[in-house]
Amino acid sequence: MSYKEIDFSKYSSIKIGGRVKTLVIDELMPIEKGVFIVGGANNLLISPNPPPLAILSSRFDFIKEEGDVLRVGAGVGGGRLLSYAKKHDIAGFELLQKLPGKLGGIVKMNAGLKEFCISDNLLGIITEEGEKSRQDINFSYRNSDIKGVIYEVLFEKKSGFDEKKLAAFKEMRKNQPKEPSAGSCFKNPPNDYAGRLLELAGFKGKREGNMAFSDVHANFLINLGGGTFEEAITLIKAAQKAVFEHFGIELELEIKIV
């Protein structure tokens, strides 16, 4: 068991957080209750006093083909898996276009775009308790009931990488801001869009200190440089309050506050 000091103001995608002594996991093992796996820290907002944190070691950064199964380590980045699928003509991973993060987190939150989800061609996962099949996991919109640590992910290997789908996903993400962010701040409520509600509530471009809701896409909370956790939380709470007062809708966070 080893530790690594990580500066989350540089490591996390939203560029917020302090230097934290972080556990490096290099074998399948049960993790103590309360330890949070940070992965690539792409949809996280790290507080000044986070719980114990952990990351997977490079041992879990692999991609293997085993007959009709694609076995992928949970430490593999979404971009790397997309490149592999494209190079080897494997279908079903086009949605990873411009989707940051490590595979473990991508699967756990059932990431995707619109109606497409990473769980669509999933066969199962490997945790410290062994293999768990897709049928035993409940996936929903940007969520799953997976407990414990995901170490490996098993996918159905189908040929036919779709360049048209790839281009479509790229086009869908053209309106995402370039400033540091943690991705979509809120989940889309049923039959509506969080960005639309935020814009109507006056939060497109709304700023608090050095944090703001993007004037490109209202559902992206961005760091303008030197933004703080406190500023981010202030904006998030104000946005939820305003949307509820205007529309009676409680916006649910998509980013994770740690």
Task: Summarize the structure in short.
It contains 6 helices and 19 strands.
The CATH topology label of the largest domain is Uridine Diphospho-n-acetylenolpyruvylglucosamine Reductase, domain 3
- Reading off the top of the CATH hierarchy, the class of the largest domain is best stated as Alpha Beta
Q: How far apart lie the N and C ends? A: 23 Å
Helix/strand order, N-terminal first: EHEEEEEEHHEEEEEEEHEHEEEHE
Q: Helical percent range?
A: 10-25%
Radius of gyration: 18 Å
List unreliable stretches of 5+ residues: none
Structural class: alpha+beta
Approximately how much beta-strand content do the residues carry? Answer: 25-35%
Mean pLDDT: 93
Shape label: globular
Report strand order across the widest sheet.
6-7-14-10-11
Record field, number of beta strands: 19
Outline the secondary-structure elements.
Layout: E1 2-7, H1 8-11, E2 19-25, E3 36-37, E4 44-45, E5 53-56, E6 63-66, E7 69-73, H2 78-87, H3 103-108, E8 112-113, E9 116-117, E10 122-127, E11 130-133, E12 139-140, E13 143-144, E14 152-156, H4 163-172, E15 181-184, H5 194-200, E16 207-208, E17 211-213, E18 220-223, H6 229-247, E19 256-257
